Structure formats: C-alpha cells, structure tokens
Amino acid sequence: MSRAVGEVLAFGIGVALSPVAVIAVVLMLVAPGGRVSATAFVVSWAMSLGAVAAFTLLLADGANARQDGAPADWVIAVQAGLAVLLLLVAARQWRRRGDRGAESELPAWMQKVDGLTTPRAAGMAVLLAAVKPKNLLLTIGAAIAVAELGVSASTQAGALSVFVFLGTLAPGIPLAISLLMRERGTAILAEVRSWMVRENATIVVVLCLVFAAKLLGDALFGSGS
After folding, report:
1. What is the widest separation between alpha-carbon atoms in the chain?
2. Residues 3 and 159: beta-carbon distance below 8 Å
3. With contact defined as beta carbons under 8 Å apart, do 38 and 178 qualify?
4. Angle at which helices 118-126 and 19-29 pack, to 10 degrees?
C-alpha cells in the first residue's frame, strides 16, 4: 500500500497546485451566496479526478500494465508520450506568460465566475479537472503508475483515494478558509487570488517540466521494476 501511495503523492500535489481552480473558487466565494457554488465546484472536482483516474486504471489493468514482473512496453511508451505532452503544455504556457511585474488579467470566461449558478460551477469543475491538459495528464500518469505495480484492487483504490484527496486541496482549501474564518478569510483569499493570477503561467510551467522529467525517468528506468 505504501508503495502505491508513494507513486501518487507527487501527482496529487501536482494537481493540487492548480492556480485556475483556486482563482475560480475564490471568485465564487466573494460573490453573494457563492459558498453553495464553491461547494458544488469542489465536489464535482473531486468526482471528476476520481472518474478519470478510475477509468484509466481499469483500461490499464485490462491491458496488463505489468508483465513478467515489469511495466509493459506500452506503459513505457505512454509515460514517454505524457512527458512530451507536458513539455508542450509548458512551452505553450511559457509563450503566454505576461509581465511578471504586473498582475495578469483574468481570462474573459473567468471574469464571469462570480455569477455562475451551482450546476454551471459543477460543470466548470469537470472541465478544469478532467479536460484541462495539465490536470488530465497528471491524473492519467497517476493511474498508470498505480496500475504498473500490479497490486490488489483494494490497494489501487486506496492509492487513488489519496490522489483525489491531495488533488482536491486546490479548490478545497479556499472553501475551508471561507467556512472556518468567514469574513476574516476574505482578505486572505484576495491575496491568494492575486498571487495565483500573477504567477499562474510560471506555476504551470514548472510543474509540467518537473513531471515531464519524472515520467521520462520512469519510462527510461522503470519505476515499477
């Protein structure tokens, strides 16, 4: 169990460092009645991560991710492919980065977050957790890392639960601050939002480079052998 959890820890933290999710939840929380929408966002986010991870794990198990005591050849190829895709995401974000000395403007779609209904907030969480490239690639990477170990179904489920918990910290912490600190948390959330908006591109670039290196290392040297 500890080995499987160890495989997903880094991936979970990588998903947790999702500036866009934090910004979205903070914007919801500062709007009237925003806690309901923010709660729906967090729940939908967790369910989306779990669904993608579980689906990937089922596919990987069905394709025999571990063969003869080592990761299957297709696992190595997928890990290398994920690394390349993460490098492309990093390059795209780097080109888009703004002046680090000034706060970047929010995308047009995010400027409307504070007026989202609860169903639309949940839908946005699905898009950001399960479709946004960085999070999707890291979730797939986590599931494959667990599948290639060849452990029991209960151990796999436990490891993925840890991954989902860690990955949900991104939108979950601002919501917890708002619920626990009420008005006092508003200033803290405003500072967090400002920093995340300003450093969004840098955070994503660094994370993509780090996990691209990890996946390439796993592909070349075999993390589960």
Report:
1. 58
2. no
3. yes
4. 170
Question: Tens digit of pLDDT for each residue in 147-174?
Answer: 888 888 999 999 999 999 999 998 898 8
* Total count of residues recorded for the chain: 225
pTM above threshold 0.85 = no
Q: How far is 66 from 4, CA to CA, in rounded Å? A: 14
Structure tokens at 190: 């405003």
Distances from the Cα of 178 to the Cα of 39, 51, 192, 194, angstroms: 11, 27, 12, 16
Paired with 67 in beta bridges are 70
Burial readout 110-142 (b: 16 or more C-beta within 10 A, e: otherwise): eeebbebebeebbebbbebbbebebbbbbbbbb
Q: Is 149 helix (H, G, I), strand (E, B) or coil?
A: coil
